[in-house]
Specification:
Blueprint: H1 7-35, H2 39-50, H3 56-65, H4 68-89, H5 93-116, H6 118-121, H7 127-138, H8 140-143, H9 145-156, H10 158-176, H11 191-204, H12 206-222, H13 225-236, H14 241-262, H15 269-289, H16 293-321, H17 327-356, H18 358-384
Length: about 400
């Protein structure tokens, strides 16, 4: 393409912005709906969304062998159908968990396609800025969506929030139809063969391998705050559903600020990764120690800034360390490592919150970021001298 960020990339950006906003609304409604059944129910619903991400390597292989435009649009329509059903049924907990799992399957199939298409739409020198812009769109999920979601639940109940999320998926799918055809790069082999090849690439290539390991470690700890926050705000600080939504949104405000700053220049991705982990650890520990909803929201801004920086740095490193025919599978495998971490966090968080309380849970989560920095050191060394294998199969 002759100019960076031409119409095709802007279409992708707007599609993700709309969809991410709806995700924040829907996620907040899911947590509040499940919270009435206790911390175990919240963990169960979040786990149902996370478990399908274990199939990320298969989703990556699909992204590398199918037209990515069609794949992304189908995934958005599928999630729209799920949230329409949630709005209509307002289901019991078992049905809620099942539908959350189906939505997670569609989201899993979308992620590697959505990330691996970026190098097709922008030149290599602008990958960092493009990822920062997409990171800015992603922050709408936590900066805007939770606020709307909390207010929608208070004003009209979960049905309203679920229905609005369904609408955003429909709009996103319509926008994606304006992208050019994004056909597979190379001749596809068998799905299982390609999946195994992607796993082998990540396992044997230093940079992607270290990134996958560091993401697994950090998410295994920090994702516990997704369970703990609602109980910290509502039980310990006596906040309302709207205040919970606003506190969640504060995390997104931090992500938004960090991603916005990263769009104005080209900064080294490796240094950003370490800086993001430091900010995440600081904000998460501070959340545990502060006495008011407003103060907790300020700490969540810091933690969110760290997460935003980490996301941009990780995506850029994967794109630069992976050959184009393998990119979907690399993102699928690295994303699966993060989701495995989420599953670990959600399993641990419920008993931890129940026995030791949400404040201790946040302290444990923040300490885990320090461990992730130790695991990320090999990624720094690998990124400083990227070496791609001669063969991708």
């Amino acid at each position: 393409m002759s100019q960076p960020f031409d119409m095709a990339f802007r279409v992708l950006l707007w599609s993700r912005a709309v969809s991410f906003t709806g995700d924040g609304i829907g996620r907040t409604a899911l947590v509040l709906y499940a919270a009435a059944h206790g911390s175990a129910a919240v963990s169960l619903v979040l786990l149902a969304v996370a478990v399908p991400r274990f199939l990320g390597p298969v989703a990556g292989a699909l992204a590398d062998r199918l037209d990515q435009r069609k794949l992304m649009a189908v995934c958005e329509v599928g999630q729209a159908v799920v949230f329409v059903l949630l709005a209509v049924l307002t289901p019991s907990l078992p049905v809620l968990v099942a539908l959350a799992g189906v939505a997670g399957c569609f989201a899993t199939a979308f992620v590697p396609a959505g990330r691996s298409v970026v190098p097709v739409l922008v030149p290599e020198r602008d990958l960092g800025r493009a990822n920062a812009l997409l990171g800015t769109a992603f922050t709408l999920q936590t900066a805007v969506g939770p606020t709307i979601g909390g207010l929608a639940v208070e004003a009209g109940g979960s049905r309203v929030a679920f229905a609005f999320n369904a609408l955003t998926f429909v709009v996103s799918a319509l926008l994606l139809t304006r992208l050019p055809a994004l056909r597979p790069h190379g001749v596809p082999k068998g799905l299982w063969t390609e999946t195994v090849a992607g796993l082998r690439f990540v396992a044997t290539t230093p940079g992607p391998r270290a990134l996958a390991l560091s993401l697994f470690v950090v998410v295994s700890f920090v994702a516990m705050d997704n369970v703990a926050l609602v109980f910290l705000v509502e039980d310990r600080l006596h906040g309302s559903a709207a205040e919970f939504g606003l506190t969640q949104a504060a995390f997104g405000v931090g992500m938004l600020a960090a991603s916005g700053l990263l769009t104005v220049g080209r900064l080294p991705a490796v240094g950003l990764l370490i800086g993001g982990l430091v900010l995440s650890a600081s904000g998460t520990v501070a959340t545990a120690l502060l006495p008011t909803v407003l103060a907790v929201a300020m700490a969540q801004i810091v933690a969110g800034a760290g997460n935003g920086v980490e996301n941009v740095a990780s995506d850029t490193l994967v794109q630069r360390l992976t050959p184009r025919p393998m990119l979907g599978r690399a993102f699928g495998a690295v994303g699966t490592a993060a989701q495995l971490g989420s599953a670990v966090a959600y399993v641990i968080a419920a008993p931890l919150v129940s026995t030791l309380g949400p404040r201790v849970t946040f302290i444990v989560a923040g300490a885990g970021c320090g461990l992730a920095m130790l695991v990320a050191v090999p990624a720094l060394r690998a990124a400083s001298r990227p070496q791609l294998p001669a063969s991708t199969h």
